[in-house]
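ok, trying the design again with the full structure, not the truncated one.
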């Protein structure tokens, strides 16, 4: 399939008064429409920097970034960044409101998303009245409100406790598949990456280089990430990934 995103030989450095920080070195990979791709690698290696280049917040020093014409991005981060003094409804409709696209049709779609993802009864509540998992779901609905083609997810589950994290990751993985979105997830949790992804891109220490690209071929992905974790192939993938991550790379 023709890629929706393709990076070729990307390098990038941050320029600071006290010197230069080389963050990325010769990064190449591509993402197809509908694919769920994870970026894994040690903390500080350059994962978020890759997302910032895709988002156009930073410009690659060299190499080419090819993004299919007309494609739009949505973002989700570690903190849900919901506005605390606005209701859930106000929060999720903020994007369309700003873009002047809060039509009756959009409202209907947002209500359907709230319903589908168990938040209908909370639309008039404030974020502080919801659990961490519910807030993350609300944040995802806010992201989906503008109907982006590609979701950039930067460690969106890291602030949650382990139990909640498993459930919310499963939840959000299903939603993304059901809505037929393309997703790029940054995580340092190998199990999370295997359980959600079609493809995992393993990065080295900073400056990030692509160490390996691994296709995850587990047949029950549509049943959710918890089912994938129980599949007999899960452990094999984990071992390969673990070994790869713990082998010193140039
Ligand atoms: P990761 O997301 O993998 O943890 P980042 O992409 O955030 O890593 O950062 C890669 C490296 O670049 C780190 O060493 C970080 O300190 C540095 N860095 C990130 N953002 C900036 C910035 N705005 N200015 C200078 N250095 C930065
Ligand atoms: Mg980061």
């Amino acid at each position: 399939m023709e890629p929706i995103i393709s990076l070729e030989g990307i390098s990038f450095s941050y320029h600071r008064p006290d010197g230069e920080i080389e963050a990325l070195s010769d990064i190449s990979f591509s993402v197809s429409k509908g694919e769920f791709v994870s970026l894994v690698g040690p903390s500080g290696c350059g994962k978020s920097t890759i997302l910032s280049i895709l988002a156009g917040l930073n410009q690659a020093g060299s190499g080419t970034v090819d993004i299919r014409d007309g494609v739009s991005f949505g973002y989700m981060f570690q903190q849900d960044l919901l506005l605390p003094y606005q209701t859930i409804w106000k929060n999720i409709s903020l994007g369309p409101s700003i873009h002047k696209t809060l039509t009756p049709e959009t409202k209907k779609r947002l209500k359907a998303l709230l319903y589908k993802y168990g938040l209908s009864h909370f639309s008039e509540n404030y974020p502080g009245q919801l659990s961490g998992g519910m807030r993350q779901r609300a944040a995802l609905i806010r992201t989906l409100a503008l109907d982006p083609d590609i979701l950039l997810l930067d460690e969106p589950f890291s602030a949650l406790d382990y139990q909640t994290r498993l459930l919310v990751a499963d939840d959000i993985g299903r939603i993304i598949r059901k809505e037929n979105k393309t997703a790029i997830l940054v995580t340092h949790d190998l199990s999370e990456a295997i359980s959600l992804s079609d493809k995992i891109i393993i990065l080295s220490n900073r400056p990030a280089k692509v160490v390996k690209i691994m296709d995850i071929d587990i047949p029950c992905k549509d049943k959710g990430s918890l089912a994938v974790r129980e599949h007999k192939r899960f452990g094999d993938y984990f071992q390969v990934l673990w070994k790869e991550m713990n082998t010193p790379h140039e």
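Keeping the full-length input from now on. Strands lie at 3-16, 19-32, 36-40, 62-67, 73-76, 150-154, 182-186, 199-203, 210-215.
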